[in-house]
Amino acid sequence: MAWLACETQWRTAGHMAAITWIGLDYTAVDIVLRRRGFATHVFEDMQAMEEAALEVLNAA
User: In the prediction, which pLDDT does 28 show?
Assistant: First the structure.
């Protein structure tokens, strides 16, 4: 649920005909997680999911 709550908090960079996914905006993710009442350890879980997602999102 935390992952879906933060799905709009990605930083990206557009260039030519592609988008590069940079990573999650940690300031925004922190706000979302706090306001939705998630436990503090969920942030570390989000970072692990972010790392895996970046490999897929930036695969050419």
Answer: 97
Closest CA to 7 of 41, 55, 57: 57
What is the three-class DSSP state of 16?
coil
Instruction: Confirm whether pTM is higher than 0.90.
Output: no
Is 24 within 8 Å of 15 (Cβ atoms)? no
Checking phi first, is residue 23 left (phi over 0); if not, alpha (psi -120 to 50) or beta? left
Burial 39-53 (b: 16+ CB within 10 A, else e): eeebbeebeeebeeb
